[in-house]
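Researcher: I'd like a structural prediction for the single chain below. Treat it as a standalone chain; there are no partners to consider.
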Amino acid sequence: PWRRLAPRTLIAHCSWLGAPLGSLLLAALATGGRPGARVWISLAILAAVFAALTALGSDTWFRTHYRVTPDALELRTGLLTRRTKSVPLHRVRNVDLTAHPVQRLLGLVVLRAGTGGHGQVSLDALTRADAERLRAELLARAERPAADDPVLSTADPRWLRYAPLTFWVFGGVLAAAGAAWRVLDGMGIEPWRIGFVRRAFDDFGNSALWITVPLLILAITVLGTLGSVVLYAETWWRYRLERTDAAALRVRHGLLTTRSVTIERARLRGVVLREPLLLRTGGGATVRAVAGGLGDREENRKRSTLLPPAPRSEGERVCAGVLGEEVDTGGLRPHPPAARRRRVVRLLLWCVLPPTAVLVVLGALLTPVLLYCGAAWPLVSVPVALAFADDAYRALGHALRGRWLVIRSGSLTRDTVLLDREAVLAWTFTRTPFARRAGVVTATAAVAAGEEAYRIRDMAAGEAAAFAEAVTPGMLSEFLVPVGER
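Model: Treating it as a single chain, here is the predicted structure.
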């Protein structure tokens, strides 16, 4: 069952008021007990801040829950944005208990359960008895080796909430309408001549657009949401990812159509943690295998999915289970500022200037209303383009983590690729004239699996060859020129 933090946590959160109240007390003593207007204003501000923080602390306490499941320690928090963080029990490496003086006075401690990497759950705060009991429980279960359980992941009904955060919310409705239209047209039926279709178009055209357009968007959203949930349930019902033996992974799922895909571990070259924009906004991700022997590229994309849309923490856990170890994907090497400038320029050239030019030309030829639209478009699109460019730049990164090459890129679809260094067969370095001018280069690692090529986009030209040589020692050594000989 879900449990709450200790109620005395609210008192501990107010301990910061000690210093300002002490200074006000000294000011009152210094004025002979006759504080001035500044003191009263300060007291009023402190009272308002105290009320706000107490209300916020009460809500945080009310909305913070934790529990220990057979597989993980889970923490659920958030006011405006709900978050659920999970640490697999067999990955728990340490459990720390800490408490500052006020917490010790109240008999409280802060429990932090970590996995040795970046995965950590912090409970602030528990009674000491509850914390000691929870620590003993976590450490006892953590001693269980992961290899004893061949099941890496199973379906959770709560994952259905990620279904509306996929392309099929809108694309599914349009695809279904297009398919129905093609079927009717193939039968010799003209859909636009059907009575209710013609009446719907007439009503739509004769009604106020500021009412009908939002209603149409709402109807498409509702239909798309229901359809995406049904499609998710049908596709991923009874999902199960497991080790069949020491040499294979098996993914099973499906309601009406049961699917089972087996991937030989000898053909596994890595994994991809994929976070499309909507799914990333909701804290979700999917996992795909970088593996050979799954057919052509299109078939590989269909059969390589190891985890459907699910919490990102579950995605990280699946990646670690599939690879056999946790790989740190934080602290990647940043790319030069020129990479950000290139993304800004691309978005301005392709997303801002063309629509503006089209609207201005059409406005000059047809109606002045389009001229106003052409003037408003840059005001709306430029901030959005800058935000996307900045997000895409911050996503860029690469690093070497033991036997794994880590590559991250993308904004609309952010991919974190964990690639076995031994699987890299060749390197390609691409530099356009604009890239040479900016001092960047795109390095592509060729792999006989997955997408067959994984790009490190817009990395500093001076470090590209050296980094590739570090990933695959000896592959580029004969082409590198020592600094003293240049």
